[in-house]
Amino acid sequence: MSIKEKMAQDLKEAMKSGDTFKRDTLRLLNSALKQVEVDKRIELSDDDVIGILKSAYKQREDALEAYINASREDLAQKEKQEMDIILSYLPKQLSDDELKEAVKQIIAEVGAVGGKDLGKVMGAAKKLSQVADGKRISAVAKEILS
User: Which pLDDT score, from 0 to 100, does residue 146 have?
Assistant: First the structure.
């Protein structure tokens, strides 16, 4: 079952169970997916859906930070809940140890030796983009290379 199909199924279940928050969040995500499909005139693959969901997650992460800085706990809590729902559809993220091992392997593959080779490492680390945030990958790579 594709991610999009799972989201549609979960939307139906949320509507039946009366879970308005989950229903509204899934409708919002669904509309973002539909918008891309209509604009580009394509059928989204799971990779496309993951990219859109990661973008939505990042938007909520930024909003969460802004709400916390503005002392708006009510809105911050709403963003956290939406982020949890989005995370349930994304592939399992790598732990810090798993990410460190994967980056070490990439560094060995490209033969990176110092900070000047960070670009090579990040280019090769694109394959990890679904299971780790670029910021985390960059931080681990910098730590290992220095």
Answer: 84
Same domain, 7 and 45: yes
User: Higher confidence at residue 133 or residue 78?
Assistant: 78
Do 76 and 116 lie in one domain? The reply is no
The CATH number of residue 118's host domain is 1.10.10.410
**For the chain, how far is it from start to end, CA to CA, in angstroms?**
43
Co-location of 78 and 139 in the same domain: no
Q: Which of 142, 104, 103 is nearest to 126 (CA)?
A: 103
Range of the domain at 7: 3-87
Q: What are the CA-CA distances from residue 12 to residues 5, 60, 78, 93, 134 (Å)?
A: 11, 24, 21, 27, 33
Mean pLDDT of 36-43: 95
pTM of the full structure: 0.82
